Amino acid sequence: MRLVALIASLILIAVFAVLAWHNAAPVQLVYPGGAVTLPLAMLVVGMLCAGWVFGVVTMAVPWARQRMRLRRIAKRYRLAEQEIANLREIPLKNAL
User: Domain residues of the chain, as ranges?
Assistant: First the structure.
């Protein structure tokens, strides 16, 4: 499985390199504060990285909630295990 992932990654990198080589013309990015001219490949990589960062930031709250929920469940599990252990140690009053 790792070999397949490695080969797929290398193919993706090669495709990106070829596309970057053939689309090396500079493009102008105009934003409210000004403008910048850079190669199309750099713009695409920059936008991909910005999208990744935005995705991670937006998922931070659900991840934190999930971790808190997991901690609560783990605490309940430990308490239930302790209660079961305590109940097993109680001697039976009506034992023969």
Answer: 2-89
